[in-house]
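Give me the fold.
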Amino acid sequence: MSAYRTFTFTALAAAALALAACSSHEQPLEPINTRDTSGGVSLPGSRSVETPAKIMSDYSLYRSALEAVKRNDDVLPAQFLSQAGSSAMAETVRNEWLKSLGRRGQWPQFQQQYALLDKEGRAQEVQCYADYIGGGKSALADELVREIGRLPQGCNTLLESAAAGGRLNQADAWRRVRGLISNNQITDARNLAAALGSPFEGAGQGAQEYSMVNIIGRNAKSTPEAAVRLEAMSGSLSRAQSGFAWGVLGHAQALNQNMPAALSHYNRADRSQLSNDQFEWYARAALRLQRWSDLAGIINSMPDKLKNTPDWRYWLARSYAAQGQQARAKALYEKVAESGRNFYAVLATEELGGRINTRNNVGTAPKSDVNKLARDGAVDRSLTLFRAAQNGDDWNMRRQAQAEWRYATRGADENTLLAAAQLAFDNQFYEMAINSAERTDKKLNYNLRYISPFRDLTERYAAQAGVDPAWVYGLIRQESRFMIGARSNVGAHGLMQVMPATAREIAGKIGMSPDQLHTMDGNIRMGTWYLGDAKRRLSNDEVMATAGYNAGPSRARRWQAATPLEGAIYAETIPFNETRDYVKKVMTNATYYASLFNEPQTSLKQRMGTVPGR
């Protein structure tokens, strides 16, 4: 865990003075007239530019207000909000304060502050408290009772109130109790069962649900004995209870990569009770075994919202193609290809005979648009915090600068997003340049979506490590969004997010100082060497090496099948959510960079290739 520096107020004031001295905003600027779209950019509201000193003072007070909320102190958040204006900081403080007011039942003050909160910025828990005091039947409660995992306190309060008042669907509510037991949220499960009128300690349904903890509980569900116990108890369980339990056991086996057992258990489950995550692993079990007919049936029984994602439309198309139903497959490929520039959109495009296209359909944003955007108060606040964070090496402040940027560009049209991307890039605020550029759908600037700073260093060290520069860029874009000095919560550093222990190992092998981890040059050199080493150690396979870079080489090997496996299937069946998403995004990024760099490897399917068997 990185030890982040925390600015004192004195340090913040000094930073503000330094910023003020070099700021181009020495004279007050007129706010953007956001109704004037002649310049091509338009942001909601009229937001005046503030002085750097005011922005840094707000940031100091913001941190204090958040600490005060934790102490249930209502004075400081009220004072902060009275002078903070419209900002991400104000929105965060108001949300956190509302959660505190809700937990303490301070409803008059809650209602007053809730009325001031932008609908687009409401936290889920805050909305739950608002629905709770609204009484009556809640659409949010009807939605949340279908969730089987952890929810924040306010949402549990809403559900328990609705359950006690008889306002929840009983089947859904008991399914949530089962799901909470399976996810080791025993207290929440007990409270909901009690609200439903049948506590665990009684002799009714609640007690029967809790009896399944030895089958579907955290320490039981992955064991071989769990299925035997379920068989033995089946006579005393309802169809709903046993049908849910088989789904839990199937999910556990799928995560352990025991796909035949997973599919067998899932086939005995009640599909109407499967969560989205359970349904996806049901499909992945069939996919890993390449049982295409089974896969089609599973996907077609998914809820519509899940079934119609690019992921499962693509695999449904593949299942149809494998069964000779080419016309049905083609229709689905076309829908997936239209879904954007994601992993499956690219694969579907290639199935239709196409290739990715990185030709910009818009030019660089006009300088007048970029300058106009820079004069917006919310945008200026973000850039001011970004510069101060850079000067002070303060990553908490940098995260707040990112939050302010997202707040400033919320709801922006595509012209404005492209101007914002250019402005962020010009200021080396690289992560938000990508953030803004990739939010456009019709107007596309691939040079901003896939920026490539530090090109000389990266290509030099990629060549030394014997790896494809496009692959390296695809990885850096996913790891750090080109933030020099980036630090993860687990201690990884720099553009390529190398762990200090790994850096010491690399340094000893290639004759570097471990301290060079913290320099741009050293970080890229270490990261590219490690990526090349991972590839050599993992059958010279880019897909496995990408998985190994994120989760460790031993896990990448563990996820291999006994026989060669299509790279896309290997990626889709990685049991870690983060690594599965990471591999798909890195490899897609690499394909786009290859196109931009005029490299020959511009087929994602070919890049994914075949992962060798163990």
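DSSP finds 36 helices and two strands in the chain.
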